[in-house]
Amino acid sequence: MKTKKVELVLQPNETHWVGDGFRVHNFIPGGYHLDMERMNPFILLDYNSKYVFPPSKKPKGVGVHPHRGFETVSIAYKGKVAHHDSSGGGGVIGEGDVQWMTAASGVLHKEYHEENWSKQGGEFQMVQLWVNLPAKDKMSNPKYQPITNDMMGKVDLLDDGGLIEIVAGSYNDVQGPASTFTPIHLFNAKLNKEGKASFNFPANYNTALLVIEGSIKINENELVPTDNFALFENEGEEFTIHAQENSIVLIMSAESLNEPISAHGPFVMNTRQEIIQAFDDFNRGKFGYLED
Ligand code: MN
Questions:
Q1: Model's pTM, two decimal places?
Q2: What separation in Å is there between the alpha carbon of 171 and the centre of ligand 1?
Q3: Which CATH number covers residue 76?
Q4: What is the pLDDT of residues 143-193, one digit of tens each?
Q5: Total tally of structural domains belonging to the chain
Q6: Which residue range is the domain that position 74 belongs to?
Q7: Of 105, 247, 274, 284, which has the highest C-beta tally within 10 A?
Q8: Would residue 84 count as lying in a domain?
Q9: Rounded to an integer, what distance in angstroms lies between the CA atom of residue 255 and that of residue 41?
Q10: 149: CA distance to ligand 1 center in Å?
Q11: What is the CA(264)–ligand 1 centre distance, in A?
Q12: pLDDT at residue 148 in the model
């Protein structure tokens, strides 16, 4: 088993606003060579680092918008988000929960701070990851997987080191609940100070982590502080993390999806023709209707 080395550590870049409810650092597609192709099927990662929203009677967020060709995975660490879509689906993503939405052939949706949470305000911290779909599944039916924390696979680490929560894929033969179109591992490592965990993914899987809380050492030599993102080489299989303080780390690894990408705004397809078709379908109301 060969060590999987860190290729790049990225500090959080300047924030930008998504609607008025999400203040995010964008890590994928980011600078350097961290583009959609490099990380495919992880084609976008927006990170709302911890930010205090004052109380607001009118929930903040993003109004009605479409998606086609991929999945949005929302991971709530602090705060609550309410979600509604054009197929009548909806729900609340609470602290510690994940929503795995397959937009596929197309949905309209809106994402706002949950009403009661919004009235109180407070610390808000969230990740939204876009997971690309293989060409053959891009026009499949939309679906939702609300994944509450109690549904996740859990593995306790040795020596009171903490635990691994498995959203998708598996860790030490414990399976996560999310169903995915291609092989994907998505975990939260919740480590106590001095806790250690090791991970083992195929060499060619696109692999990265984001430090949500605390700070860790990767392979006992690379220090990665809060809100920093580490990309791994596509060589070697095994790496370790060692918590320097109580830490939460989002770990992602997926089989590389080697298909052409044509992306424009909320649509991610394989060809430019399919993007034009997506705009056309959207303008003709084929994504349904949703009141703002
Ligand atoms: Mn969206």
A1: 0.97
A2: 29
A3: 2.60.120.10
A4: 999 999 999 999 999 999 999 999 999 999 999 999 999 999 999 999 999
A5: 1
A6: 6-254
A7: 247
A8: yes
A9: 8
A10: 22
A11: 14
A12: 97
